[in-house]
Amino acid sequence: MACILFVHQNFPGQYKHLAPALAAQGHTVHALALHGQGHAPAGVTLHRYRLGRGSTKGLHPWVGDYETKVIRAEAAARAALALREQGLQPDLICVHPGWGESLLLREVWPQARQLHYVEFFYGAEGQDVGFDPEFAGVDFDTRCRLAIKNTNNRMNLALMDWGLSPTHWQRSTVPAPERGRISVIHDGVDTARLTPDPAARLQMADLDGQPVDLRRGDEVLTFVNRNLEPCRGYHVFMRALPDILAQRPQARVLIIGGDGVSYGAAPAEGSHKSRYLNEVAGRLDHNQARRRVHFLGRVPYDTYLQVMQLSRVHVYLTYPFVLSWSLLESMCLDTTVIASDTAPLHEVIQHGDTGWLVNFFDPAALADRVARSLADPTADAPLRQRARALVQARYDLHRVCLPQQLALVDQMLAGDIPPG
């Protein structure tokens, strides 16, 4: 049995299944996370690091992002050094390098093999930046900023022994010479837990305090983001909403997501949520909107699952960016998925086969497709069945993804070069 160290600022993060599975196999499993963040799954010993300083005021704006990563790298390395002095000698380090924590670990444990979670490599073309013409274009300064932002990514590609990306598209963002050292294995979806529930029910109140009792079979449309923002198409969804409500007078809309920013820039004032709600307010019947549109904010996972089990149609929109777990989860739950025709979606949504694809920039087309699917759920039944079957066959956590992850770890521990 081996000693394995996981490093993730908010552990377990993407390792919530892999780390305890390795512990269950008998490996000694440790984790290192930022002070005050994360938690330890069963069998994992969690250690924490503290930041030794804050960012420097007045730095060149292109350098600030990298400095924050160096600050984290130093803090993680000093914590790692203390663990080494206590006798910790990992055979393998599994690390998400996105926050810089991995940059100096080889100075502490030069012999330990490193398996990196390669989530994304920034680019100025064909990805999230510059995709949406409504926002700032990609000028020379933006290209330079992104080039400097990739400094951390480039250094980690050189430091890792091997990499793992959750999707082929995410791996494709990495420079071509490095892709052969990255395996594509998704985090996995627990399809046994994510099952349709004919008895699904949600009770709540509308904005006027009136009771709302929704059941499976009701005309429910869902939209889910961590935060409601343009990167995940919130502005497009809101612009389609008045037409959807007009065409489907019985539809209820459940929107999950916070008011903050996960990706991209914050608006000049207020939140993206309020900005785009205000934009379409003149096209919405005020009383109808208060009764039929429900902003649920951020909710516990069990509540999210209830909502998705109610959903007749789920809208998923995204810039060319990291694919959300919620997309695959929704495909498991007998809801028709209507998604943006953007590159990351093409791995899982085949138009008219496992879902419907629409032009990201066409709210009218989105509204029309949503209205048709809400009106005739029977017509989409074979599509929904194929969507669930695809996720079960390709992304099931226990039968597909976790065994592949464990096999990759075994290869790393054995010193073998895994297949590209």
TrEMBL record:
Organism superkingdom: Bacteria
Every Glycosyl transferase family domain range: 25-193, 216-388
An example Gene Ontology molecular-function term: glycosyltransferase activity
Pfam families listed in its UniProt record: Glyco_trans_4_3, Glycos_transf_1
Classification via InterPro entries: Glyco_trans_1, Glyco_trans_4
Keyword field: Transferase
Keyword Transferase annotated: yes
An example Gene Ontology biological process: lipopolysaccharide biosynthetic process
SUPFAM superfamilies xrefs: UDP-Glycosyltransferase/glycogen phosphorylase (SSF53756)
Keyword Transferase among record annotations: yes
Name this polypeptide is given: Glycosyltransferase
